[in-house]
């Protein structure tokens, strides 16, 4: 088992983990600019996209397909954004933001997509408390196991 890297830990590993593959960790983003926002973190010791091995690139395709299936079922998103910003967190990772017009409700909390139809409004995210993070992680994990 690979030790979690700094980026995985910053985004709440292991509590936020929806799924792990050999080379990628799928985690709930603690700040939700839209309901179901995730972080895909590469487990390889790479700080630039071009440093990834062919295996990591190949594994990314499977992870992305699964993420899209899960989020389609969970949020019925209209568009999806993959942001590779890497300005603060050094390890190769993507922020995955399912996009939709209006808001989605989850456990009595409204999750508006404040940036729709433009770029995601990352600064207007809903901050998850520990209970909400645990519930959202569990629900997405259950869908991950269920989708093919």
Automatic annotation (TrEMBL):
Q: Name one GO molecular function term.
A: catalytic activity
Q: Which domain of life is it from?
A: Bacteria
Boundaries of every HIT domain copy = 25-101
UniProt-listed Pfam families = HIT (PF01230)
| Name listed for the protein in its UniProt record | HIT family protein
Q: What organism is listed for this UniProt entry?
A: Niveispirillum cyanobacteriorum
